[in-house]
Amino acid sequence: MGDHDQDLAGRLRQAGIARGDLVGLAVAPGRTTAPVGTVAVAVSSDAGWIVTADEVAAADASLRPRWVTWSGETAARLCGCGVRLATSWDIAAVHRLLFGGWLAGPGLAWAAIHGLAADGVPAHDPGTLFAGMPSPDEEPVGPDGYLRAEWAEGGWADSESRLVRWACVALGMAREQEAALGKTALGKTAEPGAGVRLATARSESTAELLCAELAADGLPVDLEVAGRLLTEIIGPRPRNADEATRIRAERDGLVLRHAPGGATADLRSPVQVRALLRSAGIDVPDTRAWRLEQYAKVHPIVAALLEWRKAERVATTYGYSWLDACVGPDGRLRGAWTGSDGAAGRMTASAGLHNMPAVLRQAVIAEDGHVFVRADLGQIEPRVLAAVSGDRALIAATEADDLYLPVAGELGVDRPTAKVAMIAAMYGQTTGYGGQAATRMKAAYPVAMGYLDDADRQARAGHDLRTYGGRLVRMSSGDGEGVPGGESRARVVGRGRYGRNAVIQGAAAELFKMWAVTVRARGAALDARVVLCLHDELLVHVPERAAGAAVRLVGDCLAETARRWVPGPTRFLAEITTVKCWADAKPTARTGQPADTVS
C-alpha cells in the first residue's frame, strides 16, 4: 500500500503509476453511509485507498493519470467539490462507442465486455426483505458472471470498503475495454486503426468531463435583454391566467385579422389552419413551414401565420417559464449535457441549449471584461467524407477555402448544383434534381461514393456499421443478427440512407469532440472556458485581454486535432471570430486571413 503519509501522487508513483496510466475512481453520491465527496482510487484489481477530492485534484495536477469513471455522474460530483479532472476513461462513453445505443449502466457494460447476454443482466428487487442492507464480504460479481444488481444500482457506495472495491472493478473494466478497441469484434481478429479508436475513446471520455463542466458553468445570458426580447416577441409577462389568455388571443389576432369574411380558427390545429387557408384561396396538403413559405406573398395571412409560429414556439418552449426554470440568478443558462446521443454520437443538451431560436441569441452576452471566441467548422461533412474514404480527388478539393468550387469544376456544373450533388450523395437522395446531380459524383469521386454506397448496402441488409473512430451504429436487431425479413421497401431504403449519413455524421462528431476537448485543455492557461458545443460550433468564454491569443489557440487546436485524428492531407477549416454577443453578425476583433480560416 505504501506510506499513507505520502501525498496521493507519491503513493500512485510508488504503485507504478505514470502519466497517462489508468487509475480507478469512485465518488460517493452522498445518499449512502459514505459521506458525499468520499473518493476511492484503485491501482489494481485489489489495491486502492480512500482519499479526498482535494487529494485527487492535487494528484491530477502533478501526475496526470487517466482517471477511470463509470459515467459522467462521477465528473459531475467532482465538479460539485470544485475538482475538474484533466482526462478520464469513461466506461459508459466507451461502452456506447464499442456496442452502440444509449443504455450504458454498469450491469449492461459489464455484461457486454464479458460477452454475456444483455437480457440476463439481473435487476435489483427492492421488495426483498433484506434489500439495501450492506454485506461487506459480498463480491460485486455473482456466480453467474454478472455484476450483482444491488452493487450495480448503488450498493457500491454503502461503505468505504465497497467504494474501494468499485474503483477496482472500474479499473479492470477499463483495461478490458481498452483491449477490445484493438479488435474488429470482441475476441476476434485485430485490424488496422486501433490507434484512432483508442484516441476516440479517450476524447469521448474527456468529452464527458466537458459535459459536466458545461452543466456546472452554464451559458452567460443577460436576463434584462432576455426579458425585453420575450416582451417584444410574445408580449409582457402575464400576472395571472386570465391575462395569459388575453395575451395569447391578441397574438392569435395578428393572424386572424387577415382572414376573409371574419373567419376564425384554432391556429394550433393543422386541420383548422388548412380550412382557414382555403377560405383565403390557398389549398395545401399540409401546413409545413417550407410549403407555406411558397405562398408568403400570395396572401398576407400566410406571412402572418409564419411569424405567429415563430412567436408561438418561443411562447411554448422558450417563454417566461423557461427563463425562470433554466436561467439562474447569476445569469447562466444551465442544462444537462451528454457526450453522445446514442446514435451517431453527437453531443446533446437540455434546457433548449441546442435549439435556441436565433432571435434569443441576442441575450447570450459575454460577462463584463470577457468576449466569446466563436468558431464554426466549415463544410465539415464533405471534408470528413474525403478524409475517411481516402478519395484523393475529393481530398484535393479540400485545399480550397470553398470546397464546392473545385467540385463544381470537376462535375462541370455551377456551385449551387455541386453543393446539391454533395448533400444528395451523403443523404442518399436518388430522385429529383438532387438525385440527378448525385449521379455525376460517382464518376468524379468513385472512392468516396463507394464508401457511402457500401455503408448504404450494409445498412439495408441490417448489418451494423462502425464510424471511422470505431463507434457502433446499430442497424441490426441488437443481438448481432440482421433485421427480420418482410420489411417494406421504403423502410429498407430509409435505413440505407440513415446508414450512409451516420458514418459521416458520426465521424464529424468524433472530430468535433476531439477539437472541443483539445480547446478545453489548451485554453485553461488563458482562463478560456468552452460554454457551448453546438453541432459544428464552439463558443468559448474568455477574458477580453486574451481574445487574440484565444483565437489563435482555437485554430491551432483544430490543426492539432486534425493531425491526431486523421493524419494526411485533408484540410479542415474553421471561421473563428471574437464577439460580445452570440448573435453578432460581424466580429468585434479578427486575426489571421480575411476569411479567418485555419487549416
The percentage of residues in β strands lies in: 5-15%
What is the number of beta strands?
A: 15
Q: What is the CATH architecture descriptor of the largest domain?
A: 2-Layer Sandwich
Q: Mind telling me the C-alpha Rg?
A: 27 Å
Compact summary:
The chain is an alpha+beta fold and 599 residues long. 46% of the residues lie in helices and 10% in strands.
What does this protein look like?
This protein has 599 residues and is an alpha+beta fold. The protein has 4 domains: 8-216, Nucleotidyltransferase, domain 5 (2-Layer Sandwich); 223-326, Up-down Bundle (Taq DNA Polymerase, Chain T, domain 4), CATH 1.20.1060; 335-379 and 510-579, 2-Layer Sandwich (Alpha-Beta Plaits), CATH 3.30.70.370; 383-508, 5' to 3' exonuclease, C-terminal subdomain (DNA polymerase, domain 1, Orthogonal Bundle). 46% of the residues lie in helices and 10% in strands. The strands form 5 sheets. The chain has a 5-stranded mixed sheet.
Topology at a glance:
Elements (H helix, E strand, L loop, with lengths): L7 H7 L7 E6 L11 E4 L5 E4 L1 H10 L3 E4 L2 H9 L7 E3 H9 L6 H8 L35 H4 L7 H21 L13 H24 L1 E2 L2 H12 L6 H16 L13 H10 L9 H4 L7 H18 L2 H7 L5 E2 L3 E2 L9 E2 L20 E9 L1 H10 L2 H6 L6 H8 L3 H13 L4 H13 L1 H15 L4 E2 L5 E2 L15 H35 L5 E6 L2 E7 L3 H19 L7 E7 L20
Parallel strand pairs: 1-4, 4-5
Antiparallel strand pairs: 1-2, 2-3, 6-7, 8-9, 10-14, 10-15, 11-12, 13-14
Which tags fit this structure?
599 residues; alpha+beta; Nucleotidyltransferase, domain 5; Taq DNA Polymerase, Chain T, domain 4; Alpha-Beta Plaits; 15 strands; disordered C terminus
